[in-house]
């Protein structure tokens, strides 16, 4: 692929040099008008369910050229390469395209100087290792959440991306969804008064499991699948054979690989809570774990706000149900923000709701409520279905924000500090759960106060040769 | 612009994680230690939950912690399975002290158990655990040694510097790990070794030397050795370095000189 030149400097050099050089001359190309020579060359690393969704978004993005794919499972790898080549072939006059490198070893991708950026959608165990190696190789990164497996990894990621002036966009795509952004604006503008409580769905941790060994399928490099994790024998519960499987992250049950539902799903909402409160460089100061009777995790912040992780419906025995809020509401991808003058619900499944319509007076609701007939453009038959479609479409906006940041050398909405701090809230929840006691946390020193065992959980040794 | 195939249907969301309390009654702590004796691949690990809970419950009780540590260490002998010993190491990560070091140290050289033993030694405070890792550096081979290098880096053990300098001239994978470790150690001696290694070896080693150099410079600045840091970084600003490395070095140089 040729490299375009602007004012005597090629695009790739501009990307490598970073901020400051760009302000005078660089004009952000509009979507749909990007010349082939100005596209950002990307590689997709890890092609499970999330990786596949991200790959398809990238293929339809005119600012990007997917030049390589990587997965340790040959079936997934071939499937991803075919997806890329089929998509690009359809766009050529002769209907043929064979330009996508396929490899099981991400290091081959990082060694290619023509690749500007990588999208990492491996298992959590790999996120920090590959991200930091990519930054050192001069690549910008989009990394699925949670972006790390430990608090220590998070700090190393921040230091590495700052040191090398690389850009990381965390896969916290709710930040690029209109409704969450609108809720943030309304709350920060005082529309519900002083913020008191943020209710976030998703609860559950991981365990050190000892699943029985099974024969790995041919074509799967199990050693590379495990990567930095302590050895566990192959088991198809961790990695479905010859398919992507029906669960997004089947391995998240194993503590050596992930932190369970609180880091797989819960951090999406905890991220929004951090964002709304302006805590992108901070975190809670006290974390109270759940119990079998009270399956709620409390996060207390220095600003007086209480954030809670729970599952399903609010429990009136332990949780304050704000006036006018339907206690039968089953939470999934919604967040309830409660202030001293009202409340707002923002979520993926429906339009913004509030205790008083006046709170939402200035907001254009998506989708319009109620939806009386199938939506003309999408065919959606319910507001919920339409909202889900809109939500999925907004995943493109998160990619666009990443691309814009790469071009302008500016920080994306889920930059490395914000993404790691939000991920850390999930880690804090797990450490409080695993120790079984309330933890006091110093978000500046990133230390637990007076709990040696908790502090020892902030970092883990990795299986050789991997490190961060 | 390529037309992407249709985006797949949304994935099934992850259900809540495993329950914190299993449905079946847990064994007693004594029964749990009996199960530990025979812990093998595929054995249901919920039987060991009482030990994990006991580890958490000794918090703030030094006498109880020391007693439990002693009891756990007794299961590190070679007559026990690798899985038993790795489980014990996982507990010593949390409550291990200098008393565990003699029993944990030999496991660093065991390829299967090395990561668990290193994890415990990295977390156990004091010079004894650092010395154990340093000693292992001289004995371990291949990937096991690379893991030890990474642990020495995690502890920033300056006394390992001479061995790491020697490893800088060995196979590329070991040399790259040693370069990173020297960066983390961040002393003037480490800086000198990294400067000498610059421009030598294959690309992955060079990248590690560059990364180690940048980290080392930060450590020197933090230790108040600004002039050594400046000398170190200046070496990365010449035309032989990759563009993004030069840019990173210039940024760092600018920040350091501004402060001095």
Note the run of SSEs of chain B as H and E: HHHHHHHHHHHHHH
Looking at the overall shape, the CATH architecture of the largest domain in chain B is Alpha Horseshoe
Number of strands of chain A: 17
Count of helical regions of chain A: 12
Describe the 3D structure.
The complex is a heterodimer of chains A (468) and B (260). By secondary structure, chain A is of the alpha/beta class. Chain A has helices spanning 11-17, 49-59, 74-90, 106-110, 124-136, 151-163, 178-188, 222-226, 261-276, 383-408, 416-435, 452-456, and strands spanning 5-6, 9-10, 40-45, 64-70, 101-103, 117-120, 140-143, 168-170, 195-201, 286-288, 297-300, 306-310, 334-339, 342-347, 353-354, 439-442, 447-448. Chain A has a domain at 176-205 and 268-364 and 428-456: Dihydrodipicolinate Reductase, domain 2. In chain A, the strands form three sheets. A nine-stranded mixed β-sheet of chain A has the order 15-14-13-9-12-11-10-16-17. A six-stranded parallel β-sheet of chain A has the order 5-4-3-6-7-8, with helices on both faces. A two-stranded antiparallel sheet of chain A has the order 1-2. The radius of gyration of chain A is 22 Å and the shape is globular. Chain B has 260 residues and is mostly helical. Chain B folds into two domains: 26-155, Serine Threonine Protein Phosphatase 5, Tetratricopeptide repeat (Alpha Horseshoe), CATH 1.25.40; 158-260. Helices cover 62% and strands 0% of the residues of chain B. In chain B, α4 runs parallel beside α6 (114-123), α7 (127-139) packs antiparallel against α8 and α13 runs antiparallel to α14 (243-259). The longest helix of chain B has 20 residues, at 203-222. The chains are: A alpha/beta (468), B mainly alpha (260). At the A-B interface, α1, α2, α3, α9 and α11 of A face α2, α4, α6, α8 and α10 of B.
How would you briefly describe this protein structure?
Chain A is of the alpha/beta class and 468 residues long. Helices cover 32% and strands 15% of the residues of chain A.
């Amino acid at each position: 692929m040729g490299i375009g030149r602007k004012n005597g400097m090629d695009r790739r050099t501009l990307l490598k040099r970073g901020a400051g050089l760009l302000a005078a001359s660089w004009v952000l190309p509009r979507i749909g008008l990007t010349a082939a020579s100005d596209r950002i060359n990307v590689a997709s690393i890890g092609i499970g369910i999330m990786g596949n969704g991200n790959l398809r978004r990238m293929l339809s993005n005119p600012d990007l050229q997917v030049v390589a794919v990587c997965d340790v499972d040959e079936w997934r790898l071939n499937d991803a390469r075919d997806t890329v080549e089929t998509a690009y072939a359809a766009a050529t006059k002769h209907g043929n395209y064979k330009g996508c490198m396929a490899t099981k070893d991400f290091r081959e991708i990082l060694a290619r100087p023509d690749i500007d950026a990588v999208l990492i959608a491996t298992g959590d165990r790999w996120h920090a290792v590959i991200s930091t190696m990519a930054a050192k190789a001069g690549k910008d990164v989009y990394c699925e959440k949670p972006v790390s497996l430990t608090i220590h990894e998070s700090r190393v990621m921040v230091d590495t991306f700052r040191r090398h002036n690389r850009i990381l966009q965390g896969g916290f795509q709710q930040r690029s969804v209109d409704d969450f952004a609108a809720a943030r604006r309304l709350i920060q503008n005082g529309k519900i008064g002083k913020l008191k409580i943020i209710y976030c769905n998703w609860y559950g941790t991981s365990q050190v499991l000892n699943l029985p060994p099974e024969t790995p399928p041919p074509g799967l490099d199990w050693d590379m699948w495990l990567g930095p994790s302590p050895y566990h024998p192959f088991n198809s519960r961790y990695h479905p054979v010859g398919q992507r499987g029906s669960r997004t992250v089947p391995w998240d049950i194993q503590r050596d690989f992930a932190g369970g539902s609180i880091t797989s799903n819960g951090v999406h909402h905890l991220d929004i809570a951090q964002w709304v409160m302006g805590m992108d460089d901070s975190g809670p100061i006290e974390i109270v774990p759940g119990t079998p009777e009270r399956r709620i995790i409390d996060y207390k912040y220095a600003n007086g706000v209480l954030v809670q992780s729970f599952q399903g419906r609010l429990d009136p025995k332990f949780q304050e149900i704000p006036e006018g809020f339907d206690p039968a509401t089953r939470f999934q991808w919604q967040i309830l923000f409660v202030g001293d003058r009202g409340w707002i619900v923002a979520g993926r499944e429906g339009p913004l709701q509030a205790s008083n319509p006046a709170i939402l007076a200035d907001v254009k609701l998506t989708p319009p409520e109620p939806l009386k007939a199938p939506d003309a453009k999408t065919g959606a038959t319910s507001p919920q279905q339409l909202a889900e479609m809109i939500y999925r479409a907004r995943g493109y906006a998160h990619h666009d924000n990443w691309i814009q940041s790469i071009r302008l050398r500016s920080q994306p909405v889920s930059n490395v500090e914000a993404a790691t701090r939000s991920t850390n809230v999930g880690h804090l929840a797990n450490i409080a759960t695993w120790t079984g006691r309330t933890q006091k946390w110093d978000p500046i020193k990133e230390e637990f106060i007076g709990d040696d065992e908790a502090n020892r959980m902030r970092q883990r040794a990795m299986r050789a040769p991997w490190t961060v | 612009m390529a037309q992407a195939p249709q985006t797949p249907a949304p994935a099934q969301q992850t259900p809540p994680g495993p329950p914190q309390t299993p449905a079946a009654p847990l064994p007693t702590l004594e029964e749990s230690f009996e199960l530990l004796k025979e812990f093998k691949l595929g054995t249901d690990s919920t039987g060991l939950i009482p030990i994990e809970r006991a580890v958490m419950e000794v918090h703030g009780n030094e006498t109880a912690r020391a007693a439990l540590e002693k009891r756990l260490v007794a299961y590190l002998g070679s007559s026990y399975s690798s899985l038993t010993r790795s489980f014990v190491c996982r507990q010593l990560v949390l409550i291990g002290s200098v008393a565990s070091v003699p029993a944990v140290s030999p496991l660093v050289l065991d390829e299967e158990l090395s990561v668990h033993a290193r994890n415990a030694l990295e977390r156990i405070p004091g010079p004894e655990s650092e010395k154990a890792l340093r000693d292992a550096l001289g004995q371990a081979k291949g990937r096991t040694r690379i893991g030890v290098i990474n642990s020495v880096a995690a502890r920033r053990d300056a006394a390992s510097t001479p061995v790491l300098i020697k490893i800088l001239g060995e196979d590329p994978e070991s040399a790259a790990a040693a370069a990173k470790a020297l960066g983390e150690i961040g002393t003037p001696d480490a800086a000198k070794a990294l400067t000498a290694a610059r421009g030598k070896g294959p690309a992955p080693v060079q990248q590690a030397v560059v990364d180690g150099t940048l980290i080392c410079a930060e450590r020197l600045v933090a230790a108040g050795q600004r002039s050594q840091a400046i000398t170190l970084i200046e070496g990365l600003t010449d035309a032989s370095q990759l563009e993004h490395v030069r840019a990173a070095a210039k940024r760092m140089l600018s920040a350091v000189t501004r402060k001095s």
